[in-house]
Amino acid sequence: xxxxxxxxxxxxxxxxxxxxxxxxxxxxxxxxxxxxxxxxxxxxxxxxxxxxxxxxxxxxxxxxxxxxxxxxxxxxxxxxxxxxxxxxxxxxxxxxxxxxxxxxxxxxxxxxxxxxxxxxxxxxxxxxxxxxxxxxxxxxxxxxxxxxxxxxxxxxxxxxxxxxxxxxxxxxxxxxxxxxxxxxxxxxxxxxxxxxxxxxxxxxxxxxxxxxxxxxxxxxxxxxxx
Length: 226
Fold this sequence. Notes:
Blueprint: H1 2-13, H2 15-36, H3 41-61, H4 68-75, H5 81-108, H6 116-155, H7 161-196, H8 205-223
Helix pairs in contact: 2-3, 2-8, 4-5, 5-6, 6-7, 7-8
């Protein structure tokens, strides 16, 4: 029990940990609004207030986070030229998303003219979509390379059995983490598309709610202390 509490404290001490928790509140509230709007308008209104407040607080908490893209490229640009190009596009898209998200937040809280909100939302979501597509490609390449490495280790007669087991376990853990990242990116891509090109599927409350929760919980899993 104490170990779980310690892990929760560590998780919530992280910026991403808080973000995933508040994101859960945001999209659970969205689903509650859809469920209650006809049966209990008063409760639906309160849930809507929680959704809006959660969304705005997440935007405020992400202030300055666009700089992490520069840091990611500086620390680990990639092992090959092709991988570096993919990383540049992925991180550039994320930086555009997070940078213009500042202006969207300022428009939503009334500091900037509200007429800028739609334009900032489009630019932010477009950058976000580009970033997610390239991040998914990167994760696919890394998962594929991991599978090939796992096959090579299994066929190898040079390693001891325990060493093989440890290496294979490490590859499988990495694969699960990357699959979680793909799930989160695809879920967030649906949310971004809802902003770029509104449509009945992506903009439906259930699609947005489930996508938001998949993204939040996949991020929760990836950031939970091991």
